[in-house]
């Protein structure tokens, strides 16, 4: 019982304070601000599928895997950390049902940190008869840190707006009474498909630009747009 009495006594001052704080009775300026920036994706994830069916069994999965590793090593890709085996399968079951040839398939996920390198790898894979490549996603690895930075800048922007409004009224701006973190919007995160040397089949975001040249393939992904919005109430004095 004593614990409940102590808890009630502790809560009473806060309840009284909340009842006294009525923003509508305080002269104030309410302002909303949004701060926006764009960043280049620094993590691109590709799906690479090696299958014997593409060559009707003339080239084994093991040989295709050797070609894949050779291409990645020539482009200074850390195979141990950037390449991951996803699945290993075959159509062995279909062999008995349809009397077809047995083909093996291996699928990998490859992480790359720049668009230019992804274009070169695509070109080199194509030259090795490896063209079943899917674009899984593009990301910005420091997104959470960026969100915090943009919110801080949005607050400063809100303060500057409020100062200008107060100045127009021949009054001065007091301390902030309320800050609301409204939202953070992110657009341009890419999901879609890379087919051979073309980029197509993207979702609702804008398509990635691509240009096929005689000696090289340049792939440029859209920037990721991030904006943070805040609402701040300042006391007007």
Keywords:
37% strand; three-stranded antiparallel sheet; 6 helices; single chain; 11 strands; four-stranded antiparallel sheet; alpha+beta; 237 residues
Any chance you could write out the topology, listing elements then pairs?
Blueprint: H1 2-20, E1 28-39, E2 43-51, H2 61-74, H3 79-82, E3 83-90, H4 92-98, E4 104-112, H5 115-127, E5 133-139, H6 143-168, E6 173-187, E7 193-195, E8 198-200, E9 209-212, E10 217-220, E11 224-236
Antiparallel strand pairs: 1-11, 2-4, 2-5, 3-4, 6-11, 7-8, 9-10
What does the model show?
With 237 residues, the protein is of the alpha+beta class. It is 35% helix and 37% strand. It has helices spanning 2-20, 61-74, 79-82, 92-98, 115-127, 143-168; strands at 28-39, 43-51, 83-90, 104-112, 133-139, 173-187, 193-195, 198-200, 209-212, 217-220, 224-236. It starts with a helix and ends with a strand. Mean pLDDT is 76; it is low at 2-12, 14-19, 94-100 and 192-215.
What is the tally of beta strands?
A: 11
User: Could you tell me the strand content as a percent range?
Assistant: 35-45%
In order across it, which strands form the biggest sheet?
3-4-2-5
How widely separated are the two ends?
A: 47 Å
Tell me briefly what this model is.
With 237 residues, the chain is an alpha+beta fold. Helix content is 35%, strand content 37%.
